[in-house]
Give the backbone structure.
Amino acid sequence: MVIIVTGGIGSGKSEVCRMIASEYGFPVYDADSRVKALYVRYPELVDELETVLECGLRDGDGNFVPALLADRIFTDHDSVLKTEEKVFPYLISDFAAFSAASESHVVFESATVLEKPAFDCFGDAVIFVDAPVALRIERACSRDGADRKKIIARMSNQRFMNMISDGTAGESAEYRKQISRITAVISNTGGLQDLESQVRMVVDAILEKDNK
């Protein structure tokens, strides 16, 4: 079984994944960190990106520079789509190898998986980790030591996550299908003990349903 854990910046999805790994022993595939590793592992992927984005993404020594890609796609939605079209096949293949090597259920952690058509039929259960936008901004600033404006700018690219947090996602026909994929919602507004309790309850219910 593939259990997806998703949520916006500062929601606490990584903490939920750590709890699942500790409590149940399920390996966690962190999509963000794995993508960064793919750029290093597959130089041909960077070649493809430089071609479609029509810009250099390496330093003088030929090493991939993540900041160059981030600057190129940050405010250009078309460039984001072109990048995803190249990256996602590599990511999906990498995850397939990761899950095949596991003898247990696996967890796929990603902030944007529900918003990307390439993952429409992906996963067996979806756990959405939520918290109010203001709290998520506060957490992200504290965690990353980043400027508040930069965090808000990053969050603006996670429209669906924000709409769920403020309760407006259900009003959009565009997002009803994605909402229907969510198996359970964990509200991360309390302490660690409350979060651990919700994680156990949600994962136990998912596993019980799978065993029926």
